[in-house]
Amino acid sequence: MADPTEELATLEYLSLVSKVCTELDNHLGINDKDLAEFVISLAERNTNFDTFKTALVKNGAEFTDSLVSNLLRLIQTMRPPAKASTSK
Fold first, then answer.
1. Measuring CA to CA, how many Å separate 24 from each of 7, 36, 40, 45, 66?
2. Among its keywords, does the record have ATP-binding (predicted)?
């Protein structure tokens, strides 16, 4: 049986993807799960506004500052925390 903690993390991630899809749909009229996951991935690697916006622009996404800020805040707030390593 799957670990309940992992199942919860999966549900939290799916909820985040859904929220990012909703934001993209509201601002751009695009409701794409793959795009949402890509944006989440960029936000995880670029944790402040300027680097996140730069990463988006480099990938062809010229979002408004308001959308960039909303997405980054949403992702940082809702992203399940990384699992601590148990290896020694």
1. 26, 8, 12, 19, 12
2. yes
Assess contact for 43 and 76: CB atoms under 8 A. Answer: yes
Q: Please state the pTM of the whole predicted model.
A: 0.85
Structure tokens at 34: 């793959």
Q: What type of residue is 45?
A: R
Q: How many residues does the chain have?
A: 88
One-character DSSP codes across 59-81: TT----HHHHHHHHHHHHHHSPP
**Cα torsion at 37, 48, 6, 18 (round to 10°)?**
-40
- Gyration radius of the chain over CA positions: 14
Per-residue pLDDT for 81 more than 70? no
